Amino acid sequence: MQNEKREKIGFLLGTIGVICFSLTLPATRIAVEYFGTTIVGLGRTVVAAFLVAIIFIVRKEKLPTPRQFKSLGIVAFGAVLGFPLLTSWAMESLPVSHGAVEVALLPLSTAGFAMLRAGEIPSIKFWISSLIGSFAVIIYALHLGFGHLQFADLAILAAVLILGLSYAEGGKLAKELGSWQVIAWAILIGAPFFIIPVGLHLTIEMLHAPFQAWVSFFYLAVVSQFLAYIAWYSGMALGGIARVSQIQYLQPFLMILFATIFLDESITFFTLLIAVVVVLSVILGKNATIIKKGSQPKKN
């Protein structure tokens, strides 16, 4: 009964994280037009690092162990460097609706790395549901790209692969280090390396960027880069990495919804049809058997 409650809380926190992440590409699209790839992709970490440093000083957080620092390096590589930088570059040329569907491959990427890094073994039912969702979003991406993928598509696919590893490693580490501490330490690890390139790309003209550009940038820095990860890693630690990762099949369609609201991008019938397929795959995957190596299978 206690485990069931933990899984429900984990699923709720994972959903909150996904909703917060769903504004990331629309906010990136707005911000990158005025600040450029480097400032949006790396500058968000520099800003987030100031918030993290204050929290750590107030709480007098202890340093992670050398082994934990190794895992934090993997988290930083994906969540702090790879995904923000690659998606910022891609959003200079891709519409949000195009890039968003490719992000739906994250659950499959995360589950694969979870199997390798956290010892979770998804069942055949889980993989079937993941493949259904993945094939649906690939078909959608090809449809939007008139039958081919652009170089920016490859950047997002690379970002998805890197972030999948980061999610799996972070979800595993959150169980011993704490959910928010994982992304907080990853931010502090990455920020010092980003200060110089960010400083070199700052210009006076950026001070005249419109209000929505500044709001988008600070949303990316405070929410997308930090607060959303707290909810996400907490959810994976409580509900299981592979299972909670299924929620992310909803993320591209939430992104498209937000893009419609803030960027005037349209929602087509084909988009809604793909959304139904993806939601059904989430339901199927949520009820799939997930086991830990050396333990008995667990079902919902």
Automatic annotation (TrEMBL):
<dbReference type="Pfam" id="PF00892">
    <property type="entry name" value="EamA"/>
</dbReference>
<feature type="domain" description="EamA">
    <location>
        <begin position="151"/>
        <end position="284"/>
    </location>
</feature>
<keyword id="KW-0812">Transmembrane</keyword>
<keyword id="KW-0472">Membrane</keyword>
<feature type="transmembrane region" description="Helical">
    <location>
        <begin position="34"/>
        <end position="57"/>
    </location>
</feature>
<feature type="transmembrane region" description="Helical">
    <location>
        <begin position="247"/>
        <end position="263"/>
    </location>
</feature>
<feature type="domain" description="EamA">
    <location>
        <begin position="9"/>
        <end position="139"/>
    </location>
</feature>
<dbReference type="InterPro" id="IPR037185">
    <property type="entry name" value="EmrE-like"/>
</dbReference>
<dbReference type="InterPro" id="IPR050638">
    <property type="entry name" value="AA-Vitamin_Transporters"/>
</dbReference>
<feature type="transmembrane region" description="Helical">
    <location>
        <begin position="69"/>
        <end position="90"/>
    </location>
</feature>
<feature type="transmembrane region" description="Helical">
    <location>
        <begin position="96"/>
        <end position="114"/>
    </location>
</feature>
<feature type="transmembrane region" description="Helical">
    <location>
        <begin position="151"/>
        <end position="170"/>
    </location>
</feature>
<feature type="transmembrane region" description="Helical">
    <location>
        <begin position="182"/>
        <end position="204"/>
    </location>
</feature>
<keyword id="KW-1133">Transmembrane helix</keyword>
<feature type="transmembrane region" description="Helical">
    <location>
        <begin position="269"/>
        <end position="289"/>
    </location>
</feature>
<feature type="transmembrane region" description="Helical">
    <location>
        <begin position="216"/>
        <end position="235"/>
    </location>
</feature>
<dbReference type="InterPro" id="IPR000620">
    <property type="entry name" value="EamA_dom"/>
</dbReference>
<feature type="transmembrane region" description="Helical">
    <location>
        <begin position="126"/>
        <end position="145"/>
    </location>
</feature>
<comment type="similarity">
    <text>Belongs to the EamA transporter family.</text>
</comment>
<feature type="transmembrane region" description="Helical">
    <location>
        <begin position="9"/>
        <end position="28"/>
    </location>
</feature>
<protein>
    <submittedName>
        <fullName>DMT family transporter</fullName>
    </submittedName>
</protein>
